[in-house]
Amino acid sequence: MLKKIRVFDLQVGMYVVDTGLSWLDHPYLYSTEGAIESEESIKAIRAEGFSEVFIETDRDQVRRDTQRIYDKATVDRAMADALRDSPLFMPTNKCVPLASELQTAGEIHSRSLTSLRYAMEAVASGVPLELQHSLDAARDIAASVSRNRDALICLSRLHDAGGYHIRHGVGVSVLAAAFGDFLGLNRTQVTELAVAGLLHDVGKALTPRDLLERPDKLSDEEYQRVKRHPIESCSVLSVNAALPAHVLRGIAEHHERHDGSGYPRGLKGPEQCFFGRILAIADVFDALTQKRPYKERLLPDKAMSVMYALRGRDFEPALLERFIKCLGVYPAGSLVRMSTGEYAVVSESNPDTPLRPKITVVFDQDLTPIHPVSVDLSGKQGLAPARPLEVAGVVDHRAHGIQTGEHLL
Length: 409
Ligand SMILES: [Fe+2]
Fold this sequence. Notes:
Layout: E1 2-6, E2 15-16, E3 29-30, E4 34-35, H1 39-47, E5 52-56, H2 59-64, H3 72-85, H4 98-125, H5 132-147, H6 149-158, H7 164-182, H8 187-199, H9 209-213, H10 220-226, H11 229-238, H12 245-252, H13 274-289, H14 300-309, H15 317-327, E6 335-338, E7 343-348, E8 358-363, E9 369-376, E10 391-395
Parallel strand pairs: 3-5
Antiparallel strand pairs: 1-5, 2-4, 6-7, 6-10, 7-8, 8-9
């Protein structure tokens, strides 16, 4: 019999089945088919944020019928049974409205930029690295994303001032922490992800600047020099006992890739640690969407489609899919063109419906300001749209001189 249970109730010997349900609808469902062989496997599944799983209770049936296909009615019945037994875990967020968190998040974002600037200057000049400011910033970032993930995500995407490497470190920190919170990790783990993201590239302070900012292709020798930075980050950070070994390992492995094509060690699949896999996704998404010295930024929906095309090659597919779910295809702060031709600012992502965020329509078809109208496109809360309303695409607000942040307060 097909049965849906909590990952908390998984036991060695149970047989997990893949029912074919979409990750978009069920981001917390573990669906790698096969028997659970050890307690370590269960711990790993829980640590990665999965909360629910379908099992087949009739092991003989599994052995007889290797090509089992569950019809929709069977799956629906199992889900209904599970819901009747107990409400399944679903990470919640946004206990504070976005507008309320934005001011605090702005202060945290600013302090985080300053703490990383100090750290990189210390590494560049060879003075001992004092990590307290970075640890404080990481703790504040973890606290903010626990109140409302969208606030810091939005601010770090809209912030253009300062050097790329400082903005990027803070951006990766925010994304990694927000994603960890979305996955249901505890506050200590989310703080560790925040500090790992903040400091993951601190070793680049030792890389010749010309190599980091040159638009031309690097020679093999020059590229080998750049590829030393994950280990150099770990080296300068490992002299400080404040960072646990698994945080340093995550930093060392942020350029490893799912298919083994990354560096420095060419780790494959689960050989790359969990923090390393999260940092790799956050690192690439932030790099693609930030203005870099040698490349134009991509809009977030384009960056996500580029990364989605690389799932299974560069990124663990299930983890990348949940990252997209966490941010939404249209992250908060994005300017979007609606199906009506009007323009809106995304005010909140909807993890259950990544294509249907909450928006505030603020401009007409000619980008003339209008009286703001807030709409939850998922139709779950507040005003439902009076006419069919969908996001048609993301628009580069900078190209139109629009400060989307002003429309979120
Ligand atoms: Fe890096």
